[in-house]
Specification:
Elements (H helix, E strand, L loop, with lengths): L1 H26 L5 E2 L4 E2 L8 H6 L1 H13 L3 H14 L4 E2 L2 E3 L5 E3 L8 H22 L4 E6 L2 H4 L13 H10 L10 H6 L15 H15 L10 E9 L2 H6 L6 E7 L7 E5 L3 E4 L23 E6 L6 E6 L16 E5 L8 H7 L4 E7 H6 L9
Parallel strand pairs: 6-14, 12-13, 12-14
Antiparallel strand pairs: 1-2, 3-4, 4-5, 7-8, 9-10, 9-11, 11-13
Length: about 375
């Protein structure tokens, strides 16, 4: 009898908690943006009979409740602490790596393989077109593996996921000889160094520097030595996108800028043909959660960098955000550098290349971004 009363009390308490927090969440003011996760949160879906019967309303409402749940960040933190106490090594799509590394897991289920096949074909056609127009040595492709493919010694023994190396091999094998800039070996050679952030999905400025060495070798440029590069720390308080999945601080990252012997002394950056910066960096972001946007002012459709460089020609980087700490290294090699992000860029790329007299092209993505990108049809515009 006592056991029945106890069980009933537990059930009632559980229901009160569930429905109580749900009720509070419904009257709690909605947030439009999560600074911690650096993304727009779901808003209340508009009800219609059609959406209800198609299942879209309930699906959207579930996303809305999840995003707007009362004390959501605190509950994520509590969940992480509980699963860590149970010695779980894979929490919310993040591997709890050695030495404080939080390494994002990537699964086949994230990949639309039909779309990926199209992306490969779009890229191949783009490369074929512009190697004919500009010359084979003027077009390069760099697909960068994420930390889960390079920092193998930091991963738990059971770690597995999307085969980035297999995808990169397949893409590179389809490109003309000399077009691919394969950075995997040089990154693995330096895997015991600070080449990926511990709390973020990007590579560090040091990782980008090693990739730049590979780019210089592929282009026939003078390859800078590490001792000739000056790394300047700009923050040691960085908590990135992978941290945000757990909302539990285990370590913090340091961010750096890199100066090379041929780095121009005068640099002006223009984003989206509007806002101008004297330099490549926006210090305002260093006091915000999204510190990575310090590099090149974050994501933009078009970024133009002009300088007093002694380099020749114009480089176009078709990119994701891995390019943001890579592009500054190239300024001594070119008179102008442009960065285009197909997620936001509306101008036909063929028109841009002609109008801005582009002489060199680098396609630079991390492998997972390329595999999941739905905007690669822009290669053919």
């Amino acid at each position: 009898m006592e056991n029945r009363k106890y069980s009933k009390s537990v059930i009632i308490l559980f229901l009160l908690l569930v429905f109580g927090f749900t009720a509070v969440s419904m009257v709690w003011p909605d947030r439009t943006f999560s600074e911690n996760e650096n993304r727009v949160l779901a808003s209340a879906p508009e009800f219609s009979v059609e959406n209800l019967f198609e299942g879209k309303f309930m699906s959207d409402y579930e996303k809305y409740i999840t995003d707007q749940f009362f004390l959501r960040d605190e509950w994520i933190q509590l969940k992480t602490m509980t699963e860590m106490a149970l010695n779980k090594q894979d929490i919310n799509g993040v591997y709890m790596g050695k030495d404080g590394y939080l390494i994002e897991r990537h699964e086949d289920s994230e990949i639309d393989f039909e779309m990926l096949a199209k992306s490969k074909e779009y890229l191949i056609q783009f490369v074929e077109r512009y190697t004919k127009r500009l010359g084979k040595d003027s077009v390069k492709v760099m697909l960068v593996p994420t930390a889960s493919e390079v920092l193998l010694d930091k991963l738990p023994p059971f770690a597995e996921g999307f085969d980035q190396n297999g995808m990169i091999d397949e893409v590179y094998a389809s490109l003309p000889e000399g077009v691919a800039v394969d950075v995997r070996d040089i990154l693995k050679e330096h895997a015991d160094e600070y080449i990926y952030y511990k709390t973020d999905h990007h590579w560090t400025s040091l990782g980008a520097f090693y990739a730049y060495q590979a780019y210089c070798e592929a282009k026939g440029f003078e390859v800078p030595a590490l001792e000739d590069a000056t790394f300047t720390e700009v923050s040691n308080e960085f908590l990135g996108t992978v941290y945000s999945k757990l909302n539990l601080e285990l370590s913090k990252d340091s961010m750096h800028t890199v100066t090379l012997p041929n780095t121009p002394s005068k640099i002006q950056m223009t984003v989206d043909m509007a806002e101008k910066f004297n330099g490549l960096y926006n210090d305002e972001y260093l006091s915000q959660k999204d510190k990575y946007s310090y590099y090149l002012d974050g994501n933009h459709a078009l970024t133009e960098i002009a300088s007093n460089s002694e380099g020749k020609g114009t480089l176009l980087i078709i990119k994701d955000s891995y390019s943001h700490c890579f592009a500054p290294l190239t300024l001594g090699d070119y008179q102008k550098v442009y960065l285009v992000d197909f997620r936001y860029f509306n101008m036909p790329i063929s028109q841009f290349i002609m109008q801005y007299r582009v002489t060199d092209i680098l396609v630079l993505y991390n492998a997972v971004t390329f595999a999941t990108d739905t905007h690669t049809g822009a290669f053919l515009r």
